[in-house]
Specification:
This protein has helices at about 5-40, 55-65, 75-95, 110-135, 135-170, 175-180, 190-205, 215-220, 230-255, 265, 270-290, 300-325. The protein has about 325 residues and is mainly α.
């Protein structure tokens, strides 16, 4: 019989095995983004710190650690410092249920997709608290924009999740991947794949939906008053959420760790490498979109979420349920 201490040690080890590589990926995602945007704009990007600028991420981290955390006068000190911690902690907690490969999962719970949706919904609290506690009109306006944006696009994302779950019959993330052994869901559900990925861009406040951070209007949004490690936690949380949304899209529509087909040239590659490859490919699209598309106006953003994506996703649920009922393919 395992002792409680041994169980706790194993859980801690599993957590570190997930979080340490994730933080390294997040650190180098910033480097990759700067290099890709530089290539799009015919610039060089980071090229001073280390060979090809590879140590730039660690130089930035060192700068953040050594800077002073400035707390604005009149702000709520406790909530001001708590907001970035909430955002970063929630971004890390969500990875507990992500299956990287068959059996590679910290917690294989039956309600995994509901856990993920709940964690992503709680992320708005860190942003609202940051905007209010800063005692700044610009930060508060950015927080209000971000909250409205995230809530708006979570509705259509929830309906898309329901459509996928109708085809699987389970809330377990492992079961969702296993249901795609014959065909990945992005083929029969391609419109929902596109809508879901665009909603992920809006959910993470990324271009062209970076309205809360509109530099030309409200300086930098909800974290305008933050500096040093408090700002770094928001920064890490944003990129961790980008990886999380890429991982969720991979699990729901791209077959998770499964290779493109069950044929000899692909089956020898471990599933975890397929999973990482798909996530990194989606991250590249995140960055590519930022370097390509202009920012939406706020009214365009809301119109897209409520008048386009919501009716389409709701109609797709009806269509999916009808097809499954008529063909008798409802999972048991």
């Amino acid at each position: 019989m395992n002792s409680p201490w041994l169980t706790a040690a194993l859980i801690l080890l599993e957590t570190l095995v997930v979080l340490v590589p994730l933080l390294l990926f997040v650190a180098y995602a910033t480097y990759a983004e700067r290099k890709i945007l530089a290539a799009i704009q015919l610039r060089q990007g980071p090229n001073i710190v280390g060979p090809w600028g590879l140590w730039q991420a660690f130089a930035d981290a060192g700068k953040m650690l050594l800077k002073e955390t400035i707390i604005p006068e009149g702000s709520n000190r406790l909530l001001f410092l708590l907001a970035p911690v909430i955002t970063f902690t929630l971004a890390m907690m969500a990875w507990a249920v992500i299956p990287f490969a068959d059996g590679w999962q910290v917690a294989n719970i039956n309600l995994g997709i509901l856990y993920l949706y709940g964690i992503s919904s709680l992320g708005v609290y860190g942003i609202i608290i940051a905007g209010w506690a800063s005692n700044s009109k610009y930060a508060f306006l950015g927080a209000l924009r971000s909250a409205a944006q995230m809530v708006s696009y979570e509705v259509s994302m929830g309906f898309i999740l329901v459509a996928v779950l109708l085809c699987v019959g389970s809330l377990n993330l492992h079961d969702i991947v296993a249901a795609q052994r014959k065909i990945w869901f992005f083929l029969p559900m391609f419109p929902m794949f596109v809508v879901f990925f665009i909603s992920c861009l809006a959910e993470t406040n990324r271009s062209p939906f970076d309205i809360p951070e509109g530099e030309s209007e409200i300086v930098a949004g909800f974290f305008v008053e933050y500096s040093a490690m408090a700002f770094a936690l928001f920064f890490l949380g944003e990129y961790a959420n980008m990886f999380l949304m890429s991982a969720l899209t991979t699990i729901l529509f791209l077959g998770g760790w499964l290779p493109p087909a069950e044929i000899a040239p692909f089956t020898w590659i471990p599933g975890v490498f397929w999973f990482i490859f798909k996530v990194l490919a989606l991250m590249f699209v995140f960055i590519w979109v930022r370097g390509t598309l202009p920012r939406y106006r706020y009214d365009q953003l809301m119109r897209l979420g409520w008048k386009v994506f919501l009716p389409i996703s709701l109609g797709w649920i009806v269509l999916t349920a009808t097809v499954l009922e008529l063909t008798g393919w409802f999972p048991t």
